[in-house]
Amino acid sequence: MTITRGLQPFPRAEYLRRLAAVKAEMARRDIHALVVNNAANVAYLSGYTVSGSWGSLAQALLVAIDKEEPVLVVRQCDAPAAIHQTFLERVNVIGFSESLVGKSGADGFDAVIDFLQEAGMTKRGLGLEVDYLPPQTAEKFRVRLASTSIIDCSKAVAWIRFVKSDIEISVMREAAAIADAGILRASEVIRPGVQEADAVAEIAAALVRGGDGKPGTSIPPIYLCSSPRTGTCHIRWSEDVFRVGSQVNLELGGARYGYHVGLMRTYSIGPPSDRLRRLHEAEVAGLEAALEAVRPGATCSDVANAFYRTIKKMGFEKETRCGYPIGINWTEPTASLQDGDMTELKPNMTFHLMLGNWIDEDFGYVISETFRVTESGAEVLTLAPRKLFELD
Amino acid sequence: MTITRGLQPFPRAEYLRRLAAVKAEMARRDIHALVVNNAANVAYLSGYTVSGSWGSLAQALLVAIDKEEPVLVVRQCDAPAAIHQTFLERVNVIGFSESLVGKSGADGFDAVIDFLQEAGMTKRGLGLEVDYLPPQTAEKFRVRLASTSIIDCSKAVAWIRFVKSDIEISVMREAAAIADAGILRASEVIRPGVQEADAVAEIAAALVRGGDGKPGTSIPPIYLCSSPRTGTCHIRWSEDVFRVGSQVNLELGGARYGYHVGLMRTYSIGPPSDRLRRLHEAEVAGLEAALEAVRPGATCSDVANAFYRTIKKMGFEKETRCGYPIGINWTEPTASLQDGDMTELKPNMTFHLMLGNWIDEDFGYVISETFRVTESGAEVLTLAPRKLFELD
Q1: What is the pLDDT of residues A246-276, one digit of tens each?
Q2: Taking CB atoms and an 8 Å limit, are B324 and A102 in contact across chains?
Q3: I need a labelling partner for B154 at 20 to 30 A (CA). Which of A217, B36, B59, B352 fits?
Q4: Under 8 Å CB-to-CB from B330, ≥6 apart: which residues?
Q5: What residues of A are in contact with residue B260 (Cβ under 8 Å)?
Q6: Could you tell me the domains of chain B?
């Protein structure tokens, strides 16, 4: 009995377009075959989002420059999911034996290397995403393929997926609507006397129910940092109960088929302090200045400095960077919205303009937007009001 | 202004006990300082569960054999969270500069190496968790510390945390109650006509609200593999609507302060097929046989083979292993419940006895229990009925 192919978020032509860009880069680097091991890159090139076991399990997508489709090598029990989720012909999904799981010494990368050798993919340049391999695995490739020229391609695919297609942008719009739903739900459930976890339960549920009739396809981490923890950025939530006077910094994301859109807002139960209100005003002014600086040809540094200059005029500083490219599995490891990053913006690059500002150990504020670069400026994908939510 | 210390799930003495075991192992390996980089190991030895940025960010806990407390080196903006969450004196939390974030070349490990040198921790043997470092980071340690003897300790801490203390078991009992709540909530919300995401929204909310008055502290991945995807193991959920005749395989977990307890159950909307019922009966019999095989001195192989033998007699086989040690951040990378693993069981080892059985591409079944080894047998931590849930 065979499994059916599932709903495909993208047509085959979209995956072939992405692969063509990767193959062009492979040609430039004189690489005949590329071993794609980073989970986000695998999703980008195949549609496979079964990432629970990436990192602990050895799996890879193998792109040959002279073959239309890549080959996905996964643990045997995940092969049906690969057939169901990806655009690949079933012959291009290879399950490796369970005897390679939970052992020391051999693992799925031995099956990957076996396949590369049998398919004649080791005779010319071989690209590896070395940064995403444990050192002993990188060494295994070097030892077992001693006569193959191995080239590090750790960030090659990430740079390609940095610029989205219109169809990717439309999926990110769906994720943005989900992030909006989460932020708005939070404004309904954060109330004095409510336990933080009970509010987060409602927020998480909203991120799965989704927005505009499209459910979330996974639950990105939710960070709810409330008084006295507003100076922290990555605490999930506590066992405290909200009180009048509590401030709540919330970071969450919407997810559709691996694509993430991040969103941050700050809530105050009762009137905010003057300091918080002034910081909010400076941050919103800075956010608007940063968005105004966005246009093709401007640099990441330009955008960050527009923010830094604006809040400085208003009496504040921010130590952390102003954000990063966002897409599959949240952060992309390429450019950075910070002073000195001279990466030039191009249409359909997408960024999480992350303006969380942790000023003191016990005082911080968050706001962010996810935007795409347009032909002439920036388009913010989310619709949540850019306000400091005052709750009763 | 300084941040306050938060609720501590464990007393200081518990962390010192764990550190004493690590230092004894360091002494055996002639190691003076250990760089702990695996997020689960850092949580184990400090209480720090801000793991969102582990993996993409370079951070570490540094254990010196002659110092009572380790030193936690994190990104500056995460230092307040470290002070809040861990048992460490604030002088032992070091924030590294934001100038090391989002750059190529230098990263937080440069700050780690600087600290090791300044603290005189590089003069004798230095342990690294090499498996959890990118190859270029492992190389950076080798180059920058060329005269230091570097010893790979990738699994040393994982083997120590394999055996839990009674207080860790009590935290896992709390996580188990949460997993139970999720499985029971699923039996209420999986109904014909309900969209899968709407059911998952309720299940996720239950995992945060928690059980026995203790909220979940994070949301472990939820895998809901329904007809026609019951032959897959790691699909989160689909955009389908449940129908009469649908089968639903559910894997979820409860989490408390990083400690995870896994649980799987199968649901049938309407009467199950004869094949499903027979498989369920074989699996429950196998599960009971496996639990009966658990006692100190028995091996992981003994437990797995008790299961395999039982289901074989009843006409079934299972390709995948029968589970793995479970604790902080789910799977522990040590033993494996499979034929040939001669690891001997000891009291307070904890396992996810994972009996998911994906028989055909389009047919599988799941059941599991999380148990601890007692002085004389096994204690299952969860209470969910060991049944095939038949829903209307």
Answers
A1: 999 999 999 999 999 999 999 999 999 999 9
A2: yes
A3: B352
A4: B220, B253, B260, B262, B352
A5: none
A6: 12-160 (3.40.350.10), 166-391 (3.90.230.10)
